[in-house]
Amino acid sequence: MNKKFNLLYVDDEVSNLNVFKNAFRRKYNIFTAENALEGMEILERENIDLVITDQRMPEVSGVEFLKKVMTRYPQPNRILITAYTDFDALKDAVNHARIFQFIQKPWHENDIQEIIDNALDIYQLKKKNIELTEKLKDNNTELIRLNNELLELDKLKFQFLHIINHEIRTPLNGLTGVTYLFKSELEKEDNNKYQMLFHMLESATNRLEHFLLLAERITMFKAKNFKVNQDIIQINKLTHEVVEVLKGKIFEKNINIEFELSDEEAVNCLADRQLIEICLIEVIDNAIKYSERNGKIIIRTILNDNSLIIDIIDEGPGFPDIVLKNIFKPFITSNSYTEQGMGLDLALIKLIIEAHDGIININNNETRGSTVQMIFGR
């Protein structure tokens, strides 16, 4: 059962108070007062939802009373009842007491009932709006708190990467030097067992060095300590150079590289050559890793009026759904991808492209494989 509304009716004529109370006491909780002072006392101790008052009262008029009510208790709507055509009082009531409506005496129960219902409906809406606004403020405050916590965690995470990079770099340099000397000595021997062990050592060392390099670059980008140069780059030429850098891996898996480059002789964009080269090497290298032997990789450039699009299309297994949903997070939860550091690769690439005001999209193809698309402005 719905709770009854609390109505306050103020009038210096007791007979009017009794009539009003008898008319509406079944539907509302009725509180009555014979003057403004009694009315304020009731407002102080009761939760009143609607205030109704007569205009002509001794000492304090209805308008003056409603002004005080509006100042101290602004939420409940206010209704003024008057037996006179007092336009100055009505003007004052509307402008300064902000009344909901005025009623002229003698009033009829059906007429005033409709006005009361409308006033209470609007009061409920205002009250709900205030409650929702307060809840929204609380939610926003909580959201700001959570965002600040996430920013702090993000900061700590990349500070940790920086520390890891610093602490591992020195022993890794020593390990790399020893590996190089070991390789020089091993070339003099003809022992497949030692050569296999060396390749395992070299692979682990290279992988660790690659991780540290990615962590270092990501940390620098996050800290905004990486300067982005603006050079005119011939993208078609750069893609051929990157493929040449990776030709050993391409030959090892017998990958067929197909170029679908724009017909323009010089497809140029303004960017940092070193950083764009890193992006191309990482994307094409990953495409090689996940391609089957004798597979195919398509490198495509498309030149529009305002943008340059680079597509790297492979025929590998594609990305698992969970990886695709979290593709640019530094650490993604799929063993087949994190084993080779792909999460860090893509996180770095995204940071580089965003530093150029570009866009990167990654999607699985309809049949097989995936497409990495990089879009740069011109």
In the sheet with the most strands, the strands line up as 2-1-3-4-5
**Rg from alpha-carbon coordinates:** 39 Å
Q: Mind describing the biggest β-sheet?
A: 5 strands, parallel
Mean pLDDT: 80
Question: What is the CATH homologous superfamily assignment of the largest domain?
Answer: Histidine kinase-like ATPase, C-terminal domain
Offer a few descriptive terms.
378 residues, alpha/beta, Rossmann fold, 3 domains, 5-stranded mixed beta sheet, 12 strands
Topology:
Layout: E1 6-10, H1 14-24, E2 29-33, H2 36-45, E3 50-54, H3 62-72, E4 77-82, H4 87-95, E5 101-104, H5 109-186, H6 192-222, E6 231-234, H7 235-245, H8 247-252, E7 256-260, E8 268-271, H9 273-289, E9 296-303, E10 307-313, H10 321-325, H11 335-338, H12 342-355, E11 359-364, E12 370-377
Parallel strand pairs: 1-2, 1-3, 3-4, 4-5, 7-9
Antiparallel strand pairs: 6-8, 9-10, 10-12, 11-12
Structure description:
The protein has 378 residues and is α/β, with parallel strands linked by helices. The protein folds into 3 domains: 6-107, Response regulator (Rossmann fold), CATH 3.40.50; 149-222; 231-377, 2-Layer Sandwich (Heat Shock Protein 90), CATH 3.30.565.10. 55% of the residues lie in helices and 18% in strands. It has helices spanning 14-24, 36-45, 62-72, 87-95, 109-186, 192-222, 235-245, 247-252, 273-289, 321-325, 335-338, 342-355, and strands at residues 6-10, 29-33, 50-54, 77-82, 101-104, 231-234, 256-260, 268-271, 296-303, 307-313, 359-364, 370-377. The strands form 3 sheets. Strands 2-1-3-4-5 form a 5-stranded parallel β-sheet, with helices on both faces. Strands 7-9-10-12-11 form a 5-stranded mixed β-sheet, with helices on one face. It has a two-stranded antiparallel sheet with strand order 6-8. Helix 1 links the parallel strand 1 and strand 2. Mean pLDDT is 80; it is low at 333-342.
